[in-house]
């Protein structure tokens, strides 16, 4: 299955920056960092569940969100990007 | 077709907040505001093209991005939300 992950981690407090770094580090182990707060890629069912559970242990459920869009066949989604494309090696957010 | 729109408008400068407000106002005319920087909904081909062209006239191509994921059949995408859900009536970003 193809996964599109979009997140918004509240970094108003310092602890939020730690959560953001942890979520980014974790997501990079599973998916491609395609835009500032967007990851994409193919995942097995088992890895999808594992990623969700790992993220649940990091985020603040009162201030952060992570959305997963699951598309079983990658050919069923087309992507259009306007504006800056993203170089994952630049980690300045 | 079903559209998922994800954006990130750079608001470091004051002008960026104007662009953000314009993009949000525009997107609300076409799609549902489902998360802080995410809109979703059904669009015709004509409206999809019109929305893209309108956004092109607003964003700063060097600092902002808007991604459209186009899924022709809404049944081909499942959504999982972790963390805060979103009340579009609260416009505080």
Automatic annotation (TrEMBL), chains A, B:
GO terms for molecular function: hydrolase activity; metal ion binding; RNA endonuclease activity. Its EC number is 3.1.-.-. Its cofactor is Mg(2+). NCBIfam families: cas2. It comes from Nitratiruptor tergarcus DSM 16512. This is CRISPR-associated endoribonuclease Cas2. Pfam families: CRISPR_Cas2. The keyword Phosphoprotein does not apply. Belongs to the CRISPR-associated endoribonuclease Cas2 protein family.
